[in-house]
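[DERIVE STRUCTURE TOKENS]
===
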Amino acid sequence: LYTSKSGEVGDPDKPVADAVREVWASVWSYRAFEERTYRSIDHLAVGMALLVHRSFPDEAANGVALTNNPFDPSGLEPAFYVNVQRGETSVVSPPAGTTTDQFLYFFDRADQPITYLSHSNQLPEGQAAVLSAAQVFALGQALAGIRAHFAQAYAPGAGAESPWWAMDVEFKFDGAPGEVPQLYIKQARPYR
């Protein structure tokens, strides 16, 4: 709905301040205006916050995850849902013909099984999955921490109609060639 822009510290052709101004101004884009009108949101009451983070020039993988199993609204089969792709190819709106690794990670079980729903078609020959076992485990630890941290604010109370809730998490594994890619959590927000 709103614009995403990149700036580079010290680059006079891509100043960070200009990128921030463009994103800020997008609150008044035609699409944003129409969306607020459709949802009866007062245009003068709108506010905006910006997420500013470093760039990820050496992405090994990027993805989104839910801290609960979207295929089990009962909550009896808790798992993390992960949608991940090699490099910086979008997982939300991938190019036509592109598939991603999608899997359920049963992190809370002793053997931590993974059930793949689809596999990426962007992998080099001989590579079975986008993430290594160590990367999946590191992601699982981060997702468990995020879920625990936000449970008090977002988990339904006792007697709720549905016990299901989740955080929607964007992540990347980034590292220069020859380095072990590190996990970065870009953002986490309640999944609705």
Observations:
- The two ends are 17 Å apart (CA to CA).
- The mean pLDDT is 92.
- The chain is about 20% helix and 20% strand.
- The chain has two domains: 1-52, 59-190.
